[in-house]
Amino acid sequence: MAAEIFSAGLRRRIKNSKSSLIPKNFGQVRSPYNALLQASGNAVVAMCSDLQNPPELIPDMIRQWEAGYQVVMAVKPKKP
What we know:
This protein is an all-alpha fold and 80 residues long. It has helices spanning 2-13, 30-38, 58-66.
């Protein structure tokens, strides 16, 4: 359910965006790899659909990429 809501919100906010929902659990390493194999276009934003990472960061990450960065990553701060 969260994955469908995320996909719909992404398409509303970012033109020409596409999400890939992988119904099978390939594991922590193989799932992102499998998603990258399916990707096309000029940029890829990899994010799990459990929304532990805030999708609100995506527009800022895209702006950084458009500014010339080849790789843009978000890192969760450690809790004190």
